[in-house]
Amino acid sequence: QLEEHEDFLIRPLDVTDGENRLALISEIEKIWGSGIDILVNNAGITYRSVLEHMAAEEEDMQINTNYLAPFALIRLVLPYMRSKKSGKIINLSSVGGMMAMPTMGSYSASKFALEGASEALWYELQPWNISVTLVQPGFINSNAFREVRLSKKAIASLREKTDYWHYYQAMESFIERFMMRAFATSDSVAAVIEKTMAQKSPPMRVPATADAYFFSLLRRLLPRALYHKLLYRNLPDIELWGYPDEN
To answer: What does the pLDDT look like over 36-69, one tens digit per residue?
Structure first.
Protein backbone atom coordinates (compact mmCIF):
# COMPACT_ATOMS: atom_id res chain seq x y z
CA GLN A 1 0.00 0.00 0.00
CA LEU A 2 1.29 3.43 -0.98
CA GLU A 3 1.77 5.95 1.80
CA GLU A 4 2.66 9.62 1.68
CA HIS A 5 6.04 10.96 2.80
CA GLU A 6 8.01 14.14 2.16
CA ASP A 7 9.03 13.00 -1.33
CA PHE A 8 5.75 11.35 -2.30
CA LEU A 9 2.35 13.04 -2.40
CA ILE A 10 -1.03 11.36 -2.95
CA ARG A 11 -3.82 13.64 -4.13
CA PRO A 12 -7.26 13.08 -5.67
CA LEU A 13 -7.67 14.57 -9.14
CA ASP A 14 -10.68 14.89 -11.41
CA VAL A 15 -8.79 15.35 -14.66
CA THR A 16 -11.87 16.85 -16.34
CA ASP A 17 -12.12 19.66 -13.75
CA GLY A 18 -10.05 22.68 -14.76
CA GLU A 19 -9.92 24.20 -11.27
CA ASN A 20 -8.89 20.84 -9.78
CA ARG A 21 -6.07 20.50 -12.34
CA LEU A 22 -4.73 23.99 -11.70
CA ALA A 23 -4.95 23.63 -7.92
CA LEU A 24 -2.96 20.39 -7.97
CA ILE A 25 -0.16 21.74 -10.16
CA SER A 26 0.00 24.91 -8.05
CA GLU A 27 0.21 22.86 -4.83
CA ILE A 28 3.06 20.74 -6.20
CA GLU A 29 4.98 23.85 -7.26
CA LYS A 30 4.44 25.43 -3.82
CA ILE A 31 5.49 22.33 -1.84
CA TRP A 32 8.55 21.40 -3.88
CA GLY A 33 9.46 24.81 -5.25
CA SER A 34 9.61 23.62 -8.85
CA GLY A 35 7.44 22.45 -11.71
CA ILE A 36 6.78 18.99 -13.14
CA ASP A 37 9.70 17.12 -14.74
CA ILE A 38 7.71 14.07 -15.92
CA LEU A 39 3.98 13.98 -16.61
CA VAL A 40 2.25 10.61 -17.06
CA ASN A 41 -1.31 10.92 -18.35
CA ASN A 42 -2.84 7.65 -17.23
CA ALA A 43 -6.50 8.50 -16.50
CA GLY A 44 -9.09 7.17 -18.92
CA ILE A 45 -12.57 5.73 -19.36
CA THR A 46 -14.13 3.44 -21.94
CA TYR A 47 -17.64 3.47 -23.34
CA ARG A 48 -18.87 0.35 -25.10
CA SER A 49 -21.50 1.49 -27.54
CA VAL A 50 -22.20 1.62 -31.24
CA LEU A 51 -21.94 5.19 -32.45
CA GLU A 52 -25.68 5.47 -33.07
CA HIS A 53 -26.30 4.81 -29.36
CA MET A 54 -23.91 7.44 -27.96
CA ALA A 55 -25.56 10.55 -26.51
CA ALA A 56 -23.86 13.96 -26.63
CA GLU A 57 -23.08 13.99 -22.89
CA GLU A 58 -21.53 10.50 -23.16
CA GLU A 59 -19.37 11.58 -26.10
CA ASP A 60 -18.30 14.64 -24.12
CA MET A 61 -17.26 12.52 -21.13
CA GLN A 62 -15.30 10.12 -23.35
CA ILE A 63 -13.42 12.84 -25.25
CA ASN A 64 -12.88 15.10 -22.22
CA THR A 65 -11.37 12.34 -20.09
CA ASN A 66 -9.18 10.63 -22.69
CA TYR A 67 -8.06 13.56 -24.85
CA LEU A 68 -8.94 17.08 -23.71
CA ALA A 69 -7.97 16.62 -20.05
CA PRO A 70 -4.50 15.14 -20.73
CA PHE A 71 -3.65 18.05 -23.01
CA ALA A 72 -5.00 20.56 -20.49
CA LEU A 73 -2.53 19.09 -17.97
CA ILE A 74 0.24 19.19 -20.57
CA ARG A 75 -0.36 22.92 -21.11
CA LEU A 76 0.02 23.52 -17.38
CA VAL A 77 3.40 21.78 -17.12
CA LEU A 78 5.01 22.93 -20.37
CA PRO A 79 6.11 26.44 -19.31
CA TYR A 80 8.36 24.97 -16.60
CA MET A 81 9.71 22.23 -18.87
CA ARG A 82 10.52 24.75 -21.58
CA SER A 83 12.22 27.05 -19.06
CA LYS A 84 14.67 24.28 -18.15
CA LYS A 85 14.73 22.77 -21.64
CA SER A 86 14.01 19.25 -20.46
CA GLY A 87 11.11 17.06 -19.48
CA LYS A 88 9.09 14.01 -20.40
CA ILE A 89 5.43 13.67 -21.33
CA ILE A 90 4.05 10.14 -21.39
CA ASN A 91 0.51 9.62 -22.64
CA LEU A 92 -1.13 6.26 -22.09
CA SER A 93 -2.79 5.33 -25.36
CA SER A 94 -4.12 1.93 -26.42
CA VAL A 95 -4.39 -0.54 -29.26
CA GLY A 96 -7.69 1.32 -29.66
CA GLY A 97 -5.62 4.33 -30.69
CA MET A 98 -4.15 2.49 -33.67
CA MET A 99 -7.18 0.43 -34.77
CA ALA A 100 -10.94 0.77 -34.30
CA MET A 101 -13.36 -1.97 -33.28
CA PRO A 102 -17.17 -2.12 -33.41
CA THR A 103 -18.89 -0.88 -30.22
CA MET A 104 -15.68 0.98 -29.32
CA GLY A 105 -15.87 3.83 -31.83
CA SER A 106 -16.03 6.74 -29.38
CA TYR A 107 -13.23 5.26 -27.30
CA SER A 108 -11.06 4.88 -30.39
CA ALA A 109 -11.92 8.43 -31.45
CA SER A 110 -10.59 9.72 -28.13
CA LYS A 111 -7.40 7.67 -28.42
CA PHE A 112 -6.90 8.53 -32.11
CA ALA A 113 -7.12 12.18 -31.06
CA LEU A 114 -4.60 11.60 -28.28
CA GLU A 115 -2.24 9.89 -30.74
CA GLY A 116 -2.52 12.58 -33.40
CA ALA A 117 -2.06 15.49 -31.03
CA SER A 118 0.83 13.73 -29.26
CA GLU A 119 2.59 13.23 -32.59
CA ALA A 120 2.21 16.93 -33.42
CA LEU A 121 3.45 17.80 -29.93
CA TRP A 122 6.53 15.61 -30.42
CA TYR A 123 7.60 17.84 -33.33
CA GLU A 124 6.75 21.05 -31.50
CA LEU A 125 8.82 20.18 -28.43
CA GLN A 126 11.94 18.82 -30.11
CA PRO A 127 13.74 22.21 -29.97
CA TRP A 128 13.07 22.32 -26.22
CA ASN A 129 14.52 18.87 -25.54
CA ILE A 130 11.15 17.63 -24.20
CA SER A 131 10.19 14.09 -25.15
CA VAL A 132 6.64 12.95 -25.95
CA THR A 133 5.85 9.24 -25.79
CA LEU A 134 2.70 7.22 -26.41
CA VAL A 135 2.63 3.97 -24.41
CA GLN A 136 0.27 1.57 -26.18
CA PRO A 137 -1.08 -1.39 -24.19
CA GLY A 138 -3.34 -4.02 -25.73
CA PHE A 139 -5.20 -6.73 -23.84
CA ILE A 140 -4.31 -6.85 -20.13
CA ASN A 141 -5.12 -9.71 -17.79
CA SER A 142 -7.35 -7.86 -15.35
CA ASN A 143 -10.96 -7.18 -14.47
CA ALA A 144 -10.80 -3.73 -16.04
CA PHE A 145 -13.30 -4.78 -18.72
CA ARG A 146 -15.94 -4.91 -15.97
CA GLU A 147 -15.49 -1.16 -15.45
CA VAL A 148 -16.41 -0.38 -19.06
CA ARG A 149 -19.40 1.93 -19.34
CA LEU A 150 -22.33 1.16 -21.60
CA SER A 151 -24.27 4.06 -23.03
CA LYS A 152 -27.89 4.40 -21.91
CA LYS A 153 -29.15 3.29 -25.32
CA ALA A 154 -26.75 0.33 -25.33
CA ILE A 155 -28.16 -0.82 -21.99
CA ALA A 156 -31.70 -0.54 -23.35
CA SER A 157 -30.74 -2.43 -26.50
CA LEU A 158 -29.30 -5.30 -24.49
CA ARG A 159 -32.22 -5.39 -22.07
CA GLU A 160 -34.89 -5.31 -24.77
CA LYS A 161 -32.88 -7.32 -27.34
CA THR A 162 -33.31 -4.74 -30.07
CA ASP A 163 -31.16 -3.06 -32.70
CA TYR A 164 -27.51 -3.85 -31.98
CA TRP A 165 -27.85 -6.17 -29.00
CA HIS A 166 -25.99 -9.01 -30.74
CA TYR A 167 -23.04 -6.65 -31.20
CA TYR A 168 -22.86 -5.95 -27.47
CA GLN A 169 -23.31 -9.54 -26.41
CA ALA A 170 -20.69 -10.86 -28.83
CA MET A 171 -18.08 -8.16 -28.25
CA GLU A 172 -18.33 -8.33 -24.47
CA SER A 173 -17.56 -12.05 -24.35
CA PHE A 174 -14.94 -11.65 -27.11
CA ILE A 175 -13.02 -8.98 -25.18
CA GLU A 176 -13.37 -10.79 -21.86
CA ARG A 177 -11.94 -13.97 -23.38
CA PHE A 178 -8.88 -12.18 -24.75
CA MET A 179 -8.28 -10.25 -21.53
CA MET A 180 -8.47 -13.33 -19.34
CA ARG A 181 -5.97 -15.13 -21.59
CA ALA A 182 -3.55 -12.21 -21.88
CA PHE A 183 -0.03 -12.53 -20.48
CA ALA A 184 0.32 -8.80 -19.86
CA THR A 185 -0.75 -7.38 -16.50
CA SER A 186 -1.19 -3.93 -15.02
CA ASP A 187 2.18 -4.41 -13.34
CA SER A 188 3.93 -5.26 -16.61
CA VAL A 189 2.48 -2.17 -18.30
CA ALA A 190 3.52 -0.06 -15.29
CA ALA A 191 7.04 -1.47 -15.72
CA VAL A 192 7.04 -0.32 -19.36
CA ILE A 193 6.02 3.18 -18.24
CA GLU A 194 8.73 3.19 -15.57
CA LYS A 195 11.34 2.11 -18.12
CA THR A 196 10.18 4.86 -20.48
CA MET A 197 10.51 7.43 -17.68
CA ALA A 198 14.11 6.33 -17.07
CA GLN A 199 15.21 6.49 -20.73
CA LYS A 200 17.24 9.49 -21.77
CA SER A 201 15.52 9.77 -25.16
CA PRO A 202 12.40 7.58 -25.24
CA PRO A 203 10.77 6.87 -28.62
CA MET A 204 7.49 8.43 -29.69
CA ARG A 205 5.55 5.13 -29.54
CA VAL A 206 6.11 2.19 -27.20
CA PRO A 207 3.95 -0.96 -27.61
CA ALA A 208 3.39 -2.16 -24.04
CA THR A 209 2.09 -5.66 -24.82
CA ALA A 210 2.82 -8.35 -27.41
CA ASP A 211 -0.56 -7.95 -29.11
CA ALA A 212 -0.04 -4.19 -29.40
CA TYR A 213 3.18 -4.86 -31.26
CA PHE A 214 1.41 -7.46 -33.46
CA PHE A 215 -1.49 -5.15 -34.37
CA SER A 216 0.95 -2.35 -35.13
CA LEU A 217 2.74 -4.62 -37.61
CA LEU A 218 -0.58 -5.79 -39.06
CA ARG A 219 -1.70 -2.23 -39.77
CA ARG A 220 1.61 -1.34 -41.41
CA LEU A 221 2.14 -4.47 -43.51
CA LEU A 222 -1.31 -5.43 -44.79
CA PRO A 223 -3.03 -3.49 -47.59
CA ARG A 224 -5.82 -1.44 -46.03
CA ALA A 225 -8.69 -3.19 -47.85
CA LEU A 226 -7.37 -6.64 -46.92
CA TYR A 227 -6.85 -5.59 -43.32
CA HIS A 228 -10.47 -4.46 -42.92
CA LYS A 229 -11.90 -7.57 -44.60
CA LEU A 230 -9.75 -9.83 -42.43
CA LEU A 231 -10.78 -8.07 -39.25
CA TYR A 232 -14.48 -8.04 -40.16
CA ARG A 233 -14.58 -11.75 -40.98
CA ASN A 234 -13.03 -12.59 -37.62
CA LEU A 235 -15.53 -10.64 -35.52
CA PRO A 236 -17.52 -12.88 -33.15
CA ASP A 237 -20.98 -14.17 -34.26
CA ILE A 238 -20.93 -11.78 -37.20
CA GLU A 239 -23.63 -13.83 -38.95
CA LEU A 240 -26.14 -12.65 -36.32
CA TRP A 241 -25.32 -8.96 -36.54
CA GLY A 242 -28.07 -6.93 -38.19
CA TYR A 243 -30.76 -9.42 -37.15
CA PRO A 244 -31.93 -8.16 -33.74
CA ASP A 245 -35.03 -10.37 -33.64
CA GLU A 246 -33.06 -13.59 -34.07
CA ASN A 247 -32.41 -15.24 -30.69
So the answer is: 999 999 999 999 999 999 999 999 999 999 999 9
User: 182-191, pLDDT tens digit by residue?
Assistant: 999 999 999 9
pTM of the model: 0.94
Residue 47 appears among annotated catalytic residues: no
**Secondary structure, 3-state, the chain:** CCCCECCECCCCCCCCCHHHHHHHHHHHHHHHCCCCCEEEECCCCCEEECHHHCCHHHHHHHHHHHHHHHHHHHHHHHHHHHHHCCEEEEEECCHHHCCCCCCEHHHHHHHHHHHHHHHHHHHHHHHHCEEEEEEECCCCCCCHHHHCEECHHHHHHHHHCCCCHHHHHHHHHHHHHHHHHCCCCHHHHHHHHHHHHHCCCCCCEEECCHHHHHHHHHHHHCCHHHHHHHHHHCCCCHHHCCCCCCC
Which one, of 92, 110, 114, lies nearest residue 100 by Cα? 110
Condensed to tens digits (0 to 9), the pLDDT of residues 121-139 reads 999 999 999 999 999 999 9
Catalytic residue among 107, 164, 167, 168: 107
The one-letter amino acid code at 192 reads V
